[in-house]
Predict the structure.
Amino acid sequence: MDKYGNRFIKYDEAFMKRLSRDSTSLESMIILTHEVGHHIFFHTVESGTDGLASNYMRYGIPGSPGYDPAKFKAQEEQYCEIRRRQELEADRFAGFVMAKKQVPLEKVTQFYRKLGVYYTGNSDSTHPSIDKRIKAVKEGFAQVAGAPGRSINLSKIGGENLDLVFNNTTKLDRDKLLKKVTTKAIDAAAYLYMNRQYKLGYGTSGTSIDVLDTARSNALKRFLGRDFAPYKTKLIDDDKEYLEIQQTSFYLLDAQRVYRAYYFAFHVRGGYFYLLMYEPDEEWHIAYKSRFEDQQISYEELKLLFTRTFKSETQKLIDGYAK
């Protein structure tokens, strides 16, 4: 995903042609669908660990101040474990699409077995073993067989585990659509973590820019390319753009004053809707982009993104209180 939120896939044309030399274009289509799955499941924006290169620069260079072989290996294994999970999600999506296109399961699994020689599934591998990948493909097929005609359920295809361990519309139309995003995606994701082992409550609402700390406020100025006085600005709403800070707070119902707030932003500009999230590198990033139209916004994708985000936030709340 580029800095403007546009999604794209890079591929080697020669490799794709070589892959399909002795068959139809089915094999390259499976690969392309798999790569689309990486976008669908937000692997371009999902964080959790640094990449291998930055990890090496921090901990893997002998003689450097941060040199720590044990930490380097632990970070590398964590990175690879996340990558393997992501590959299985993309495989399930590929299986789902192939089933929708009525491609025989046997042909798809034959192709995956051809790939088997490249992947070991070991702890230092970014891809799972081929048996696990074929199992994921079959799970994607099962989503179609078990519910023909139904709309796509990204949470099931992704194998989600919910357990915790401006445009030309009027301002009224704009606010109604943003409220729909909140209700169908954000509130729906937050509700999944209510009424479980830990009694959690939550609330989501628009809030003022002045709730942001200095780092977030300065990063927002860099992102927008404009200055504003945070303690005098409730939101940005002019002919150029609309921006509103949103806050979802989780709290423990059985404990007083124990809560955790998560901030993100709605940004509408030039007929497009952007969801902005703040990352630990002190920058705001575009996590989702679509035309600012009800038919174009994927509430299911947004729900999936917030399901994963809120899982991390609620786990931090519980872990912090337990200490």
Remarks:
- The mean pLDDT is 85.
- Residues 13-155 form one domain.
